[in-house]
Design brief:
The complex is a heterodimer. Chain A contains no helices and 11 strands. Chain A has strands spanning 4-6, 9-13, 18-24, 31-37, 43-50, 55-58, 61-66, 71-76, 85-92, 101-103, 107-112. Chain B is built from no helices and 11 strands. In chain B, strands 2, 4, 5, 6, 9, 10 and 11 form a 7-stranded mixed sheet that branches. Chain B has a 4-stranded antiparallel sheet with strand order 1-3-8-7, with no helix packed on it. By secondary structure, chain B is mostly beta strands. At the A-B interface, strand 4, strand 5 and strand 10 of A face strand 5, strand 9 and strand 10 of B.
C-alpha cells in the first residue's frame, strides 16, 4: 500500500523560513496536498500541486515536487507564531473519482518567538 | 460558503449507547467522506460516498454505519462502540473528479466510556 512519510518535528524562529518535507511511494499519485491542523481542530487545505508541475507558489507558501525522487516539500516564508500547527502532506489515490486522500504522518511545526 | 459543518463538536457515549454524528455542506459537492483520527496520528479514511452511493468502505467494523440521505448530508451511526473507538471523527467533502479540493469540518471528538 501507499506509504507517506514526514519528519515528526520542526522548530524555527519567528521570521525564518520553514521547510517541511514529505516522501511518498505511489508513483501514480496525481495530486499532492498540504493540510494544516491546529490543536483540537479540523484540517485546513493550504495548497496542492499537480504531479506534472515542479513548483507552485502561493503568497508565503512554496511547494516543490521532485517526482523522480517522490519528494514533496512545503516552504513557509517569514514564519509566524500563528503558523505553529501540525502539517500533513497527502496524496490522492487514483482508484475512484472521489478524492480519497492518504495522509502522511504529520510534522509538528513549533515557531519560537 | 466553503464550510463543512459537523455536529456535535464533542460526544461522550457509553458502550451500550446508540448515537449519530452529522455532517452538512452546501457547496454542491457530490463526494463526502468520513475519516477517523486518533491522537497524534494522521487521519485515516473510513468511508467515501460518491453521488450519494457508498463507494469505499475501508474495512470498518459494522458498529459504524454511514448514511448519506441526500447530497448535502452525511451521517455516521454509532452502536456498541468500544473505548478504543475514541477519536476525532472528521467529515470532508469535494467535487467528484481529479485534483479537486477536499474541505474538512472541525470534527467531532468522541469519547467512549
Amino acid at each position: 500500500g501507499e506509504d507517506v512519510e514526514q519528519s515528526l518535528f520542526l522548530s524555527v524562529r519567528e521570521g525564518d523560513s520553514s521547510v517541511i518535507n514529505c516522501t511518498y511511494t505511489d508513483s501514480s499519485s496525481t495530486y499532492l496536498y498540504w493540510y494544516k491542523q491546529e490543536p483540537g481542530a479540523g484540517l485546513q487545505l493550504l495548497t496542492y500541486i499537480f504531479s506534472n508541475m515542479d513548483m507552485k507558489q502561493d503568497q508565503r507558501l512554496t511547494v516543490l515536487l521532485n517526482k523522480k525522487d517522490k519528494h514533496l516539500s512545503l516552504r513557509i516564508a517569514d514564519t509566524q507564531t500563528g503558523d505553529s500547527a501540525i502539517y500533513f502532506c497527502a496524496d490522492r489515490t487514483p482508484q475512484t473519482g472521489a478524492n480519497n486522500l492518504f495522509f502522511g504522518t504529520g510534522t509538528r511545526l513549533t515557531v519560537i518567538p | 460558503d466553503t464550510e463543512v459543518t459537523q455536529t456535535p463538536k464533542h460526544l461522550v457515549m457509553g458502550m451500550t449507547n446508540k448515537k449519530s454524528l452529522k455532517c452538512e455542506q452546501h457547496m454542491g459537492h457530490r463526494a463526502m467522506y468520513w475519516y477517523k483520527q486518533k491522537a497524534k496520528k494522521p487521519p485515516e479514511l473510513m468511508f467515501v460516498y460518491s453521488y450519494e452511493k457508498l463507494s469505499i468502505n475501508e474495512s470498518v467494523p459494522s458498529r459504524f454505519s454511514p448514511e448519506c440521505p441526500n447530497s448535502s448530508l452525511l451521517n455516521l451511526h454509532l452502536h456498541a462502540l468500544q473505548p478504543e473507538d475514541s477519536a476525532l471523527y472528521l467529515c470532508a467533502s469535494s467535487q467528484v473528479g481529479a485534483g479537486t479540493e477536499a474541505f474538512f469540518g472541525q470534527g467531532t471528538r468522541l469519547t467512549v466510556v
